[in-house]
Amino acid sequence: MRFVPSHLKQSAATLDRRSAVRSMLLIFAAVMVCVSAMVFTALDRVGHYANQLDEERSREAVTGAIQTFRDQLTATLHDYVAWDDAVTHTQDPLDLEWLQRNFGMMSYQSELFDVVMVLDGAGKPVIAYSEGKPIVSAILSSYMTPDAWLLFKRVASGKADAVPEASSFVSTIKGVAAVGVGLIRPRMAVDAERPSPSYYVVMMRHLKGVSLERLSRAYVLPGLHMADVEIDGTHRVDIKGPDDKPFTALGWVSRSPGDTSLAQVRPLVWCAVAMIAIYMLLLFVTGSQALSRLSADEAAAVKLSLTDRLSGLPNRAGLFAGMADLVDKAQRDNKDVALLYLDLDGFKEVNDAYGHATGDLLIRSVSAGLRVLVGEGSVLARLGGDEFAISFAGFDVHKTAIELSERVLDFLGEPLTIGERVAVIGCSIGLAVSRRGLVPGEELIRRADMAMYRSKEDGRGRWTLYDPSMDEEREERNLLELDLRAAIDRHEITVSYQPVVDARTLRISGVEALARWNRDGHGPVSPDLFIPIAESTGLIDMLGLCVLRSACLALKSWPDLTLSVNVSPGQFRDPAFVGHVAKLLEDTEVDAARLTLEMTETYFVQNPARARQTLDLLRKTGVKIALDDFGSGFSSVGYLRQFGFDRMKIDRSLVQSVGEGGRALEMLRATVALARSLDMPVTAEGVETEAQAMALRLAGCDLLQGFLFGKAMAAADIDRLRMSGPLFTLSNTG
Questions:
Q1: Does 192 have pLDDT greater than 60?
Q2: What is the CATH number of domain 494-723?
Q3: Which end of the chain is more exposed for a tag (fewer CB within 10 A), N or C?
Q4: What pLDDT is recorded for position 257?
Q5: Hey, CA dihedral for 82, 86, 90, 91, is it positive or negative?
C-alpha cells in the first residue's frame, strides 16, 4: 500500500472539495444560466403573447367600432327615410321649408350625422346641409364624390338589398365619413313600392375629432387616428369604400402590455437570480394581471356591443344572448320560459309634441321603472324605439307573467314626470311561453310580438297571451290588407248613405257617408274589419279622401241636404289633411258649410294642442266639426268648451238606454241641456224605435239618425227619399 502524507491527503481532500464545489458552482451556475435563460425565454414569450392578444383585441375593437359607427348612421337614416311625414312633404307640392327644418337643421351639433342632402330621382339636390348650414353648390361635389354617387345609383336603380338603403364609407372634403343613402318611403310600405316622385336622403357622419375621441374612450383604444393604407403598419384596420377597396385606415397606439410587464420585472430577475421562485411568482402575478386587463377590456367591448346606449339595457342582440342562456338552463332544469313583449302607447305623440330629447328622457324613466319591477335572473332589454322585452324562466311562468304584466300596466298607466312636463302613456303587452324551453328564443319573440299587436288591436293598455290561431289570423289580415290596397287603387270602395232626419218634421235633411267594400271573391267586408286595418297600415288617408270625394260629388245632386263624414285620428294627424279637404271642396264645387266632419274625442284627449290647431285650420275652410260618439268615452265638459264644436252627436249607447226610462232619460236630458247651454245642436244616432225618437225629440235633439228612418243605402234611394214626405209618422207628434 502506498503511503500518502496526511497533509497531502488533506490537500487532496481540499482539492476534491474545491473541485466538487467548483463543479457544483459550475453546475449551479449552468443550471442558473439555463433556468435564467428559460425564465427570460418564457418571459419574452409571455410578453409577446400579451402583446399579440392586445393587438388582436384592439383590432377586433377597432373593427367593431367602424361597424358600429356605420350601423348607427344606417339606423338613423332608416328612421328618417321610412317616415310617413317625409313622404307627405316630398309629394307635390314639395315642402322645402319642412325638409330644411326636419333634415337640414337637424345636422347642427348632431351626434348622429353632420351632413344631410335630399336628392330627387335624377340626383339633383333639393337641400344640402353641413352642420346646420347650407352647402354652396361650388363645393357640393366635394361631398357627393364618385363613391357617394355609386351608393346613390345603387339605391336609385333598385340594386340595393330588400330595403332601398345602402351605406359605406367615403372620403369627402371634411375627411372620412360614413355615408348612407335611402329612399324616402312610407314606414309600412311594401318593399317593391317606390313613391312617385322619388326622393333620396344622403346622410354623412365624419370620422374625426370628437367622433374619434368618443370611439377611443368607448372602446378603450388610446391614440385612435386615421392612417394611410399605403404605409405598412400592424396597428391599423382598413376602411373600405363602396367598391370594397380600402382607401384609408383607422390606426391606434399599441399599449404593448407585455413589454410593459417585462420592463417592470426584468431588473428584479437580474438582481435576484437566486430568488427565481419569487421572480416566477411575480411573473405569474404580472402576467395574470395583464391577461385580466385584456379579458376585462374584451368583456367591456362585448358588453358594449350588447347594450342599448340610451337606456343602458341589453339591446336586441343582448336579448338574444340572454334568452339563449335562459333556454339552455330551462332545458337542463326542466323549466318553462316566458317572454313579455312591451310596446309603449302614446310614445310617438310625446316625441312629436315635446321633441326627441323629451322622448329620450321618457325612455330612460321607463327603463329605470322596469328595472325595479323585474326580478333577479330575468332579462330586461330595449329592442329599439319604444319596444321592450322581459324574459325569465320558472315552473309557474304563466301566473308570474300575468302578475308582472299587471304591475307593468299599473306603472305605465300613471302619469310620468319628465323634467317640467308630465307625459301620459301606457303600454300593450304580448305574452308567449316556451314549455320546457323547447321553443327557440327567436320564435318566442315572434309569438310575443304577434300577441302584443293583438293587444293594440283590442284597445291597448292590456296584455294578451299568444294563441296559435293568431298565425292564421295574421296571414288573413295580411291578405286583407293587400286586397284593400288594391281595392282603393282600383276605386272599388263604394259609399252608402244613411238618412239624417229633422226631429221636428221627420223629413230627410242630410246624410252620413259610410264606406262599403265588396271584396272580390269573398263578398262584403264589414267596416269594423277593414277600417281598423286601413288605420294601422296608413291606408286610411287614401280611403278617407276617396269616400269624401265620392260623397261630395253625390251631394251636388242633393242641394237641400247636408253631408256628414267620419274622420279617423290617423287622418287628423296628417299635416296635409286640411289642404286635402280644401282642395277637394274646390274641385267638387261643394259649399263647405254643407259638410260636417265627425271626429271622436280620442285624438283631442291625446293631443289637445295639435288638435286645436288643426280645428282652427279646418274652420277656416268653412266646414263644420262635430264631436262624434259623445257619452261613450271621457265626455269631458272641458273639451266641449275648449274646442267649441259645431255639433254634438250622442252615442247610440246613450240612445239605446232611453227606453229604460229613469236615470237614463235624465242623463239624456242633461246631455242635451249641456249642449244647448254651449249653443251646440245635437244629433242622436242609433234610433231604432218610435219611443226613442219621441223621447229624443222631446229632450231637444234637432236631428235623428238610425234604422227607424233607414239603413245605409245607395245614392238612388236617397233621391227617392228626398221626393217623399216624412220618413216616419210618430203616434204623438208632441
A1: no
A2: 3.20.20.450
A3: N
A4: 79
A5: positive
